[in-house]
Amino acid sequence: MSETRLNQRAVIRVSATEAGKEQGEDCRDFLQGLVTQNIASVQEDAPQWAALLSAQGKVLFDFFLWADGDDILIDAEREHAEDLIKRLKLYRLRRKITIEMDLAMTVHWSLDAADQPSDPWFADLG
Question: Is 0.85 surpassed by the pTM of this model?
């Protein structure tokens, strides 16, 4: 079956820099207190929905998270991706973490996705 590239989606990579890795920096620790998902449960083969909230508890951004080795990937709406990156960088402070769009990755959808994770929003999608 064919697959469709979802052009309205973007992938953001959150990773520790080489210097950060040497100092024990972990992007999971960085994201743990910022998003609505337990980052410890995020795995490579199981994307999980999460959100970034304002101080008042309002949803600013919603997205999917999944692991890629030691990095965390964020699947977000393309039109809001740059704003999400800016917001995350506000919280970075002195951490040796990079937060950038991963232009080498794209998001696809396929009806024939038996070996892929299921969509948590709509079970009929697989």
Answer: no
Query: 73 to each of 56, 67, 98, how far by Cα in Å?
Result: 26, 6, 12
- 10 Å Cβ neighbour count for 67? 19
pLDDT digits (tens, 9 = 90+) for 56-97: 999 999 999 999 888 999 999 989 999 999 999 999 888 888
- Measured CA to CA, the distance from residue 85 to residue 55 in angstroms comes to 17
- Helix (H) / strand (E) element for 109: namely strand 108-110
SS3 content of the chain, % helix, strand, coil (to 5): 25, 35, 40
Distance of alpha carbon 2 from alpha carbon 5, whole angstroms: 10
Higher model confidence: residue 82 or residue 102?
A: 82
List domains and CATH numbers for the chain: 7-107 (3.30.70.1400)
